[in-house]
Design the sequence.
């Protein structure tokens, strides 16, 4: 079955850029949407954005000015870039396979998550 | 942006029924999904399209959605069901929106 694995630095300095990668294994990256979701300590899940395998993206309006999601289908990877981070961006970051459309609007496969701390 | 409200906590005795609500404006017009998140784990999809169960999810998990309230029901709750549960819908601005989560305690 499809598995997702997040990777990237666990510590980022304030004002710098957070970059994470999600690798898809056990299945295809095509014909699906792929999301990033984060969860600050003790808080709710927050959807960051998604990318379709073709490259089309949609972002959470609250983060849109600082975020970009990219896809590399040849490597079966998609990436998150978040600029100008602050302590408020400290969270567990998850990647997830997303459904948009007739199959519903939900995320059916999740990675284990990776903790990112923003601190100097 | 679309908002949904969940009770912070629900307590249930083993074997009894737990009901978790998710309220939002005309939420019955939207598809709702529910996720279970055990302590220290990633979310697990337990219901989608209001009441459909993914493969491997026990039948004791069921759902309904009408008017301003969507409900996740756990019938015959087991100790392993103790977790945080999040509702999720598709907002009018075509974005995913999560509720604040409900902590289910099995006493």
Sequence:
């Amino acid at each position: 079955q499809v598995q997702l694995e997040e990777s990237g630095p666990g510590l980022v300095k304030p004002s710098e850029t957070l970059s994470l990668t999600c690798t898809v294994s056990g299945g295809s990256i095509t014909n699906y949407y792929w999301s990033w979701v984060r969860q600050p300590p003790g808080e709710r899940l927050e959807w960051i954005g998604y990318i379709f395998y073709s490259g089309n993206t949609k972002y959470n309006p609250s983060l849109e000015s600082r975020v970009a999601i990219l896809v590399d289908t040849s490597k079966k990877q998609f990436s998150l870039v978040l600029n100008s981070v602050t302590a408020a961006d400290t969270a567990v970051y998850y990647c997830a396979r997303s459904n948009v459309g007739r199959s519903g609007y939900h995320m059916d496969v999740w990675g284990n998550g990776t903790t990112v701390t923003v601190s100097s | 942006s679309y908002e949904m409200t969940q009770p912070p906590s629900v307590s249930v005795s083993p074997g009894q029924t737990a009901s978790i609500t998710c309220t939002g404006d005309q939420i019955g017009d939207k598809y709702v999904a529910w996720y279970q998140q055990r302590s220290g784990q990633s979310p697990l999809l337990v219901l989608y399209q209001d009441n459909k169960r993914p493969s491997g999810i026990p039948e004791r998990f069921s759902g309904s959605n009408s008017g301003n309230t969507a409900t996740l029901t756990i019938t015959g709750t087991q100790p392993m069901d103790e977790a945080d549960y999040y509702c999720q819908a598709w907002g009018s601005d075509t974005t995913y929106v999560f509720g604040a989560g409900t902590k289910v305690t099995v006493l």
